[in-house]
Amino acid sequence: MASQRRKAREEFFDRLDQLDDLSDSETQLDTSSGAKDALRPDSTRRSTRSKSVKPSLQKAASSPQVLTAPVPPVTLLPAASAPGRPTASLKRARSDAVPPSSKLKRNAKRKQETVVPAQALIFPPEMCFLFVPNRGLTSLQQSQIDEAEKHGARLAAEFSKNVTHIVVDSNWTLSQALEELPDKCHPTGITMVNWTWVVESLLYGLRDSDQHRFRVKGATGTTSLHQTSSTDKRPAPSTDHDLMVAEPKQRNVGQTTPQKNGRAASEADPELSRNETDKNAQTDDQDELDLLQKEMDKNDPAIEDLMEHDPSSKFEGNYVIEQSSNGNLEHGSFSCMNKNERNRSSSNPNQVTIRLLNQMAEIYDANTADQWRARAFKQAASALARQKELVATEEQAAKIRGIGASIAPKIEEIVTKGRLARLDEANNDPLHKTRVLFSRVYGVGGAQAAAWVAAGYTTLDDLKRYVGLTPNQRIGIEHFDDFETRIPRAEVVQHGLIVDHALKQTDQELKMYIGGSFRRGSPDSGDIDILITKEGAGMEQIQTVVMDTLIPQLKQQGFIVAELASGHWTDKETPSKWMGASVLPGQSIWRRLDILFVPWEELGAALIYWTGNDFFNRSLRLLASRKKMRLNQHGL
DNA sequence: AGGCAGTACTG
DNA sequence: CAGTAC
DNA sequence: GCCT
Asked: For A100-110, what is each residue's pLDDT tens digit?
């Protein structure tokens, strides 16, 4: 029995290995494949969590290390450099060597590494930074500069010929920055970047400075002030595949990624379905990012090495056998088996339809009894998001998986009339609208919203006066707009840095990962998910450190402004997460922050879960359950 | 007709 | 436990 | 509401 189960699990992983082949070294799929070895060893350990690690778990326990091995550890966020492209790293680990091509590059760094032991050189020695301003810095900025220095940054006290990079406070404009510089200085040929560039480089390795998000406010990118990035790329051309995250999605829009069976690919982002602002995302970054990607692929032979060493090929046989013995599990039924589909958001011709369908979903979502109908609308919308052509007729629509007899005509209606009667109907019903509004409050669902509407409340202000609010709901109302505002990627990084900074003061060995849509490469996120782990540590240990030290410290410094849920100890269970809100210094907008306590052995499963997206997770779990297994955030 | 992911936290 | 969130 |  036990061996059967093990075998079944092996097969499951073989399928995941197979996915490596389908996956495109970006987003969810490689996360799962990279994490799978960590996941593999034990599923029952939850009950034995506090016991010592069994020998069979060694692989799991060491897996993140293995993943990290080929790249120099980044001290600021040590773990960050590992699993971003787990597929790649895993493959490298399996072939037991750094690919020759990247060996060369890394050897070039060896010298400095001995000078700065245990530190990864991020900034090559020829770079010299002038920070603007360089006085009156916040302590956070100061610590970031220190960190940069530890990673090879040379700092200039004032402007000189040696300066290669001028790093400007992200809130400063170009003209403000220029005022800080000596009159005569005309920084031609000097790269001007904003603070984010340094921060992201610290986190993920040297970033290409020639990207929009690193541009100094008010700079036009092509001025003489903004040198091209070629000099940046030379010293460390391959840093990108050390990322813990996918690059922002839009970059690959131009790439064609043929589907296995003509059918559309993965489900859409939750972001996509929940928030249409996503869809207007930076078109202007696309070309740039696309070019960057091509450039990197071209410049980085390591990528080809990885392809050659692709281990998935050896599982081909298994895959075929399994398929024939499991006819039901037709490949196309599981979105988690599909390659990530890019080319959705901005360029999708079905945008209007998608938006309206998602509004339908939101309406049904506000009604607990209609959760499945809501789910169907969301899935239909995400199916449309994968279409490359406009779906205009009922017949076209009905052919798409996930769109059936009821939604298909609605799609035609939307395309021909530009509106959906059923939706207008709901929107014209004030009670309906109010219910939807209320259910958007954090801590309020369909049941509560309906009850309040029934009780005659009509506005959020009404609710504020209502005494029966839970503390969380009150926060949800007070910060209704805050929590609905998307968080730019750069700000997610800032939150991560602050947490990491506090973390390091507590225990150098604590590691953190930013998960969620950030990890999938989204240009913005709805909330911030931070996983905290430590080699060899169990849930209790992480929980204790975080709750006793980290959270209080972050509260004290005014970063954490609210606690929404922090769990409680029971006989058997250790709290596994903390949920709350944080604010960046000098800002006022509250952000939803989740901190997850991840036992070292569960890192693989946790990364799968907390990278998502939702549809991917649900699909993968469904697949597991069809195979008589269960997948959750702790393991398989 | 029955399933649709699986778990954690609050009150 | 129901409701809510992830 | 869709799929099996």
From this structure: 333 323 333 33
